[in-house]
Design goal:
There is one protein chain. Helices cover 52% and strands 10% of the residues. It is mostly helical. The chain has a domain of 100 residues. It has a 3-stranded antiparallel β-sheet with strand order 1-2-3. The relative contact order is 0.15.
Length: 153
């Protein structure tokens, strides 16, 4: 018999970002995540800075410097965070517009928020994907199968 901890992937979640800022979102499935990742990769290619996009068109992929890969990874992470929050986000706290009203979670406010606080994008990226990373890590590739003979048996 195998035991494992119950992981609440199906319930609403909340990410505390500090300074009174928190993001809430509803659960999303593995297929939703993979579709968002595919879209984020496409958007990252389309929104590369002009200098890097020109270099990519000029050279083979093998000849591109590390700044190209880093730029595309950064664009991918930013787009993935925006896609997941716009599709599954239920709200946020601690973010206000100029007149003191609560800021709505829209594409424009997310862009402004992530531009003003770039470190938040990486925190959100990690925390949004954390349940899925834990679920994948739960698989133990070195565990013995109960139906297979081993050297110890």
């Amino acid at each position: 018999m195998a035991l494992r901890l119950v992981r609440a992937l199906s319930g609403p979640r909340r990410i505390e970002l500090g300074y009174g800022v928190a993001v809430s979102y509803r659960a999303f499935g593995y297929a939703d995540l993979r579709e968002a990742e595919a879209t984020a990769h496409r958007l990252a290619r389309e929104t590369m800075p002009e200098r890097l996009a020109f270099a990519a068109a000029l050279h083979d992929d093998e000849d591109l410097g590390p700044e190209h890969d880093e730029g595309r990874r950064g664009q991918f992470a930013r787009h993935l965070v925006k896609l997941l929050l716009l599709r599954f986000g239920t709200g946020w706290e601690g973010v206000e517009v100029d007149d003191g009203r609560a800021a709505p979670m829209t594409e424009d406010t997310l862009d402004a928020f992530l531009s003003l606080f770039p470190g938040v994008a990486s925190v959100l990226h990690v925390r949004l994907l954390e349940p899925w990373a834990e679920l994948e890590a739960e698989g133990n590739v070195s565990a013995r199968s109960p139906h297979t003979a081993t050297a110890e048996a």
